[in-house]
Structures are given as structure tokens and as C-alpha cells.
Amino acid sequence: MKLILAASLIGSMAALTACDKTPSSSSTTTSDSSTTTSSEARARERAQETKPVAPDNTGKNTRDRDGMNTTPTDAGQNSSDVKIAADIRSSVMKISGLSTSGQNCKIVVNGGAVTLRGPVATADEKSQIAAAARATAGVTSVDDQLEVSKP
To answer: Can you count the helices (H) and strands (E) in the chain?
Structure first.
């Protein structure tokens, strides 16, 4: 049964490949006198549409691997630090009109010291998030490393 299915699949693929190589009546001539079928043009368009887009924070992630910057792996694991981080995140999520990047900023707490990292949309968002962190009980200091991504 598997052999029949595999043979059928190979036959179908061969037939489809042959279809792409058959001259088409929908050929167009370009200014350099080369002929291109519409199926080839569509295939090129699809290839251009599906090119992956590199994440915009790749360079920053590379920068963070040097061990010189505070990252989420530096967060304290004791119950006090975890509670402070959760309280700050809760306060941040309550800020009306905050951008997605602002809502997703990194909040690292270690021994009550808070480090805020990541992109935010505006300077106002940056100050609101830092204020929320400073107003949270148990916070001893706030290192605001948030970066405004738009002027």
C-alpha cells in the first residue's frame, strides 16, 4: 500500500513539473526580448514575499551575551524578588495606552534592585514604566535602561 502511494505521489510530482516546462500561451515578452511565462513570474513573486525578515533586536541580543549587561537570567529567585517583579509587571499592564513593546519590557529584580530594559515607543512610556517600578513596595533602586525606539 505504501509503495503504491509513493509511486502515485512521484507520478503526480513528475506531471506537475512537466506542466511548468510546457510553453504557455500566456507568455509575455519583456523589453530585453526574453520570454517569461506567467507561472514563472508568479513563482518569483511568491519567493520575494516569503523571504524571512530578520528580527530588529538581533544586535541587542548579541550585545547582551557579553555578560556585562543585566539580563532576565540575572533575576533573583527568592520569593521577595519574584513578588516585586510580579507587582511591577501588574502595574505596567495597568498603564492605559501602553504600546506592546512597553508592556513587554524586561523587568529584572535582584535583591530589590530593579533593572528595566527593552524598547518603548515614547519617552512618556519610559517615564511611566520607571515610575511604576519606583512606586512598588520593596524596590530599593531602579536602573532605567529602557530605550525609546521612536522620537
So the answer is: 6, 5
